[in-house]
Fold this sequence. Notes:
This protein is an alpha/beta fold and about 160 residues long. The chain has a single domain (about 1-70, about 90-115, about 135-155), classed as SPOUT methyltransferase, trefoil knot domain (Alpha/beta knot). It has 5 helices and 5 strands; from the N terminus they run βαβαβαβαβα. It has a 5-stranded parallel beta sheet, with helices on both faces. The two termini are about 25 Å apart.
Amino acid sequence: xxxxxxxxxxxxxxxxxxxxxxxxxxxxxxxxxxxxxxxxxxxxxxxxxxxxxxxxxxxxxxxxxxxxxxxxxxxxxxxxxxxxxxxxxxxxxxxxxxxxxxxxxxxxxxxxxxxxxxxxxxxxxxxxxxxxxxxxxxxxxxxxxxxxxxxxxxxxxxxx
Length: 160
């Protein structure tokens, strides 16, 4: 099952970029053995509309379009479902085992997700109840995807 992260905003911080590149490489290597990956990341520019509802609608439309080939979508939102790393691994394992070809993770802009992104999602997931900067949310997500792959493969990285 292919994995995609479609996100609003471009990373500017070298530290975040380096961490994401490191985990993306690990995901691509570890995922082969468990039929998950490769991971592709699609960065979309922030909308420039004058008000938040228009920005959210524009960004949601572009996120849904970017994830168009994915047959499963997971929107990241602070109001979403909280889960453990093991439960997240089970979500990915079940999607793979059910024949899902591609899962896309949607990360909205500074104003949050528009309705089109949330309504297209099979799951709305929270990384926590606190709002995270987009770069940090991406780092946490790629680390959790890698952790999920290690759980699925039986690798000792996850020791909980």
